[in-house]
Amino acid sequence: MNIRKRPGVLNVSDLHKMRQDDEDLWPISLADMMTLLLCFFLLIVAVSHVDLNRYERVADSMQKAMVTEKPAPKPKKAEPKPVVKKTTPPKPQPKPVEQPAMVRSKVSHTTLTSEPVAPLAQEKPKPEPTPAKPAAPTEQPKPAESVKAETKAPAPESERTGPTRKSLEDIRKELTAKLGLDTSAVEIVPRENGVELNLRGAAFFDLASAEIKPAALPLLRDIAATLSGTPYKVTVEGHTDNLPIESWLYPSNWELSSARASRVARFLIDGGVPRNHLRVEGLADTQPVAPNDDEAGRPIPENQAKNRRVVILVSPS
Question: Where is the composition biased (Low complexity) (predicted)?
Fold first, then answer.
C-alpha cells in the first residue's frame, strides 16, 4: 500500500535526520560560549591593573578634607579672655566712694534735728564723735590702691609688645634647648635680623601629602610654645622638589607647598602665636637649597629630600 504523505506531517525518518543534524551543530554553540568566557576573563584581567600610588593619594586627600577644618575656632576663644579680666577690676571703684558721702549726709541731718531740741551744752559733745566717724574709716585710700592696680594691670601687655631685638637671641637659645642639636628633623639657622627654622619634609610630611605626621607634633608644640605671644613677624614658607605632581587636590607643586605651609601656620595659631603676625607663602621648587638634578639631568634623591622643607622665619615686624 502506498501511503501518501500529508502536508505538514513529519515522518519518523525525517525526525531521525533532524536529530542527527542537531547533534552535529552543538559543538559550534559550545565554542561560541567558550570564546565569550575567554573574552570576559581577559577583560577582568585588563581592568584589575590598578595604579596603587594614585589611589593612595586620593585616600590621603580625602582624609585631609575631612580633618583640616576642625581646629580653626580655637584661637578666637583664647584671645579675648585676658582682656575681660583686666577691665573688670575698675568697676567696683565708685562703690566705696559713695558710702562716706552717704554717712556725711546722715550726720548733717542728725545735727539739724538735734539743734532745736537739745541745749548748747549738749551740742558740743555731739560734733566730736560725728567728724570722727567719717574720718576713722580708711576706705578712701582704697580707690587709690585700685588705681595702682590699674597701672600695674597693663604691664603684661607692655611685656608682650615691648621685647627688643635681643630677645631674638633668647628665642634661638630656647628653641635650641628644646629641640636639641639633632638636625635630622629641625635645623636652627641664626640670621642677622631673625631666626630661621628649617623643618625637614621627610620628618613632617609624607610624599605628595600636606598632613603632619603624628611623630612631628611634639616638635611643633615646642616651637609654638616658644613663639606664643611673640611681637615679631613669623613667616611660614613651603618648598618642594622638582618632581611633578598631578592630582585633583594638588594639581602642581604650588598647591602642595602652600597647603603644607598653611597647615603649619594653623598649628602655630592654635599654639598661641598671634595670627596677625603670621604670613604664609608657597614657593614650590623655585628656591632649592641644593640642585635637584646633576649635570646630566639625572635626579639626586638626597638633594631632593633637602629641598622638601617648610621654613619658619622669625624677624622684626
Answer: 135-144
Beta strands in the chain (DSSP E): 186-191, 194-200, 233-239, 278-282, 309-315
Number of domains in the chain: 2
What is the per-residue DSSP string for 212-225? PPGGGHHHHHHHHH
Query: What is the value of pTM for the model shown?
Result: 0.49
- Rounded to whole angstroms, how far apart are CA atoms 219 and 235? 18
Four-point Cα dihedral 130, 133, 135, 141, nearest 10: -150
Q: How far is CA 271 from CA 15, 248, 282, in A?
A: 93, 31, 22
Domain containing residue 303? 162-315
CA distance 109 to 92: 28
Asked if residue 168 and residue 143 are part of one domain, the reply reads no
> Could you tell me if 197 and 188 are in contact, meaning their C-beta atoms sit under 8 angstroms apart?
yes
Q: Which H, E and C letters describe 19-52, residue by residue?
A: HHHHHHHHHHHHHHHHHHHHHHHHHHHHHCCCCH
CA separation for the pair 97, 94 (Å, rounded):
5
215-247 pLDDT per residue, tens: 999 999 999 999 998 999 999 999 999 999 888
Q: What one-character-per-residue DSSP string does 260-275 give? A: HHHHHHHHHHHTT--G
Beta bridge partners of 282: 238
CA-nearest of 239, 308, 244, 226 to 280 is 239
- Whether residues 208 and 289 share a domain: the answer is yes
What is the CATH number for 179? 3.30.1330.60
Classify residue 30: in a domain, yes or no: no
Domain C-terminal end among 108, 132, 152: 152
**What is the average per-residue pLDDT within 252-256?**
94
Mean pLDDT of 136-141: 47
